[in-house]
Amino acid sequence: MKRIFLLKGLDCPNCSAKIEKEVGELDGVQSSVVNLMKQTLTINVAPVAANTIASQIETIVHSHEPGVVVQEETIIPVTKSYLLKGLDCPNCSAKIEKEVGELDGVQSSVVNLMKQTLTINVAPVAANTIASQIETIVHSHEPDVEVSEIVQESYIPEKKQEANESYNNEDKKLTVRLAIGAAIYAFGIALTVFAKVPLPIELAFLIVSYVILGGDVVWQAVRNISKGRVFDEHFLMSVSTIGAFVIGEYPEAVAVMLFYQVGEFFQSLAVKRSRKSISDLMDIRPDSATVRRNGELITISPENVSIGEIIIVKPGEKIPLDGVVVDGNSMLDTRALTGESVPRSVHKGDEALSGCMNQTGVLMIKTTKAFGESTASKIIDLVENASSRKAPTENFITTFARYYTPVVVILAAFLAILPPIILGGGWTEWIRRGFVFLVVSCPCALVISIPLTFFGGIGAASKRGVLVKGSNYLEALNNVSVIVFDKTGTLTKGVFNVTDILPANGFSKEQVLEYAAEAESFSNHPIAKSILAAYEKEIDQSVISDYKEISGYGISAMAGKKKVYAGNTKLMDSEHVEYTACEKVGTKVYVAVDGQYAGCILITDEVKPDSKKAISDLKHIGVEKTVMLTGDDEKIGKAVAEELQLDKYYAQLLPDQKVEKVELLDSKKRPGSKLAFVGDGINDAPVLARADVGIAMGGLGSDAAIEAADVVLMTDEPSKLVDAIDVAKATKQIVMQNIVIALGIKSVFLILGALGIAGMWEAVFGDVGVTIIAVLNAMRILKK
């Protein structure tokens, strides 16, 4: 029985892993999976244990997280999506995500900063009233953000272009406001310095400039306080600058607000440009499609094209939907999908994928998929939604900022109050130091730059033909110590050729090949296709009956009145056929007719040109162990492993045995490290799911690969895995740099502020300057 429990309030990755493990060890529980994003626990449990499992789960959860509410899901939740137009602050988006997730009836809440959307799963009883609550929460953090429900997502080029604007009308208004405020501030300072105007006139200019520059910040702080949200950047800036006015540091007060606003402006631009960079990178869907209807060519939106219609793609145009070429020859630029610059030729009968650029000839393509299911749409959706799966570092930073800000506010209060009481006097100086402490302590540098770095890392990987489904998987790639490869189609080409036929017991080569071809005529396996290609004749499938494909063994079928077996030695042994084992290296298909051994067909597969270099490069960048799993015989496995210099190989494995070997390798890996499995994403789905990181090879056009894996390499090159780990390591390096930069510099300025050495001007650099440095450093990953 499958049962789902909602763990309301669970936000600890460590605790969730422990809960998952301990629930999985309960009697009767066959599987246990905690989804931290959805805050759910999904179990498969034997009926005999079903009645008592709920109380056991609650006991386990509360032993780790006493505040988490455990309730079983009995009602199917409603999924709703909202457009948050104008949202560009990672810090605010994290707060919105958290507060919406805490509303009654909401089971999960995810803000996608790239798409500017909020997606929730909400109980039907609360679905009708949730919109107003969401709008209230959003506007409490971002008053100018427009909130609207997305009834049906559609592809509208004008909206996409507007969303991609990195400098819009709101930015222009803010620029004008900052310029006016700065000009009034500069004029007031100039009058004071050169004209020696009285203090009231100086104050008038400074107060006016302060209201223009920081009025919205103070107003937001007041609104937040009225709602019980005290400790945020608006509060820190308002208290410190108003306090500076109180103690007579008028120019410094306005300067802090000016530079804070300038810093926020640059942060906003950085997020928008990062979003635009990824959007431009993934801009592989065309705005229109040319369709032949009733003998005429008409131009319509790609989403209005039906499956089976004929579209015409001219040179220089992008292919809008997946299909098969029915007329024409051309070269296709697949760079947007694969990261490769070498064009690919297509002819009549070949598959043409959406997102490719047609370079030379006119193509007539019969569509095989709807717009939403086409390759380009799926890839874009994957990249855009990857930010919803947050890395442990991101989750840690969000939690850290939640506690960090109140702590520094309390420390600032102690700094301003306790020394004057203990030492006697000096209130103005110690209050000034407290305000400096407040300005420096704002955690913007961390809460903005860390998500931005992972955001950019996913974009950089996609540019190189590597799709990473979440920043959690991008971070996990850093810790991969063991990589397990499937052989066929991953390390080898998967293109089989019949190289020899060894007949026996009076059968001829032609008879052995014919019987094998008849037995394999219904199979789509590459080995079957190679036998049919070698046979080169039409097969009357009407005479084939009682067809059975036995996983890991081979095929049995009736060819007319003859019982034919075609498969490996296990099949011959299971059917008690006396045969002569072939000693040659290659894949062997043994053929038996009516229980008599007829002969052996030898089939060979080539190793991919870059497999050896990929294995060498992986070891060079720190992978400790490379292992190959194959269903082929021992000799083939050994030959390929020795050629590629793999550390270990396992041959003659059935599909379920591959999972067992992965579990064995996983149990022996270094503590804290990860195991990755690389397969074709079709036959290896169970192993891909079992590995810490499942990597599908050759995902171009393969729906199964894209669905099954955590990371998809869009070409058949194993070297793409090196690129994926390379981008992951560069991303993590920048993340760690920003953590060190932000905390290191802030720590120095906090100490200097507490000692009275640093003033308000230094505090501005400690906050705004560090944030801008961290954001610029984060954007380096986009150039990777």
What distance separates the N and C termini? 47 Å
Subunit arrangement of the protein: single chain
Shape category: elongated
Given helix and strand content, the structural type is: alpha+beta
Strand count, sense and closure of the main sheet?
A: 7 strands, mixed
Please give the number of β-strands: 30
The unreliable regions are: 152-164
Q: Helical segment tally?
A: 27
Percent range of helical residues: 40-55%
Largest beta sheet: what is the strand line-up? 18-30-29-28-19-26-27
C-alpha Rg (nearest Å): 32 Å
Strand % is 15-25%
Brief synopsis:
The chain has 784 residues and is an alpha+beta fold. The two termini are 47 Å apart.
Task: Record the SSE blueprint.
Elements: E1 2-8, H1 13-24, E2 29-35, E3 40-45, H2 53-64, E4 69-72, E5 78-85, H3 90-101, E6 106-112, E7 117-122, H4 124-127, H5 130-141, E8 146-149, H6 157-163, H7 169-195, H8 199-226, H9 233-246, H10 250-281, E9 289-293, E10 296-300, E11 310-313, E12 323-327, E13 330-333, H11 335-338, E14 344-346, E15 351-352, E16 357-358, E17 363-367, H12 375-385, H13 392-424, H14 427-441, H15 444-463, E18 466-468, H16 471-476, E19 480-486, H17 487-491, E20 492-503, H18 509-519, H19 526-535, E21 544-550, E22 554-559, E23 562-567, H20 569-574, E24 587-593, E25 596-607, H21 611-620, E26 625-629, H22 634-644, E27 648-650, H23 655-668, E28 674-679, H24 685-690, E29 693-697, H25 703-708, E30 711-713, H26 719-754, H27 760-778
Parallel strand pairs: 19-26, 19-28, 26-27, 28-29, 29-30
Antiparallel strand pairs: 1-3, 1-4, 2-3, 5-7, 5-8, 6-7, 9-10, 9-11, 11-17, 12-15, 12-17, 13-14, 13-16, 18-30, 20-25, 21-22, 22-23, 23-24, 24-25
